[in-house]
Amino acid sequence: MALSGAVLRLARLGCLLLAGAVPAAQAALFKYVDPETHIASYTNYRPAQPGARELALRLDPPRRRPATARAPAMAVAAVGRATLGPADFPRIDAARQHELDRGRRHIIGTELQTAEAELAQLLAAGGAPAHIGRRRGDVAALRRELERLE
Q1: pLDDT band (50, 70, 90) for residue 77
Q2: What tens digit of pLDDT does each residue of 82-93 get?
Q3: d(C-alpha 135, C-alpha 141), whole Å
Q4: Phi/psi of residue 58, each to 5°?
Q5: CA distance linking residue 45 with residue 40, whole number of Å
Q6: d(CA 31, CA 42)
Q7: CA–CA gap between residue 102 and residue 29 (Å, rounded)
Q8: Distances from the Cα of 116 to the Cαs of 66, 104, 130, in angstroms?
Q9: Residue 18 C-alpha from the chain's centroid
Q10: pLDDT value at position 140?
Q11: Secondary structure string (H, E, C) spanning the chain
Q12: Are 72 and 82 in contact (CB under 8 A)?
């Protein structure tokens, strides 16, 4: 009777847990990867198959590094709201931001018109469903981006 993959994984996990519970004098763990199935097997005895190797077990817990000074916290604006980046990060005023957004809306609107025209052509010509689906996704994404900018 063959065991399922989940049962084999649980058995391997159990072997690993048992291997961790073995006293230091008996703590040996070996790994063997079957060259045909590429399934790794773990055991506490040395397998006869070539290519099996002993794994080094760490019996002492890993050491924690001392805490280092972290980057300064997010700068707080005059209105009391957190802003991203350091306090000396260059900022732009609202008028310049509106100008940039207007340019973005124009570019994305133009891309949207082109994508809608290409979608209409694909639908009229009976294009491949994959191409039609991709173009519909492009149109939807461009519409979402325009809504986000408004």
Answers
A1: very low
A2: 556 677 777 888
A3: 10
A4: -95, 115
A5: 15
A6: 5
A7: 64
A8: 57, 18, 16
A9: 32
A10: 94
A11: CCCCHHHHHHHHHHHHHHHHHCCHHHCCEEEEECCCCCCEEEECCCCCCCCCEEECCCCCCCCCCCCCCCCCCCCECCCCCECCCCCCCCCCCHHHHHHHHHHHHHHHHHHHHHHHHHHHHHHHHCCCHHHHHHHHHHHHHHHHHHHHHC
A12: no
What's residue 32's pLDDT?
83
**% residues pLDDT > 90 (the chain):** 21
> Which of 72, 11, 68 is closest to 43 using CA atoms?
11
pTM of the model: 0.41
d(CA 43, CA 12): 8
* Tokens coding 108: 């994305």
Rounded to 10°, the helix 94-125/129-149 angle is 160
d(CA 108, CA 145): 8
- Tens of pLDDT, residue by residue over 26-74, are 567 888 888 888 888 888 878 888 888 888 766 666 667 666 555 444 4
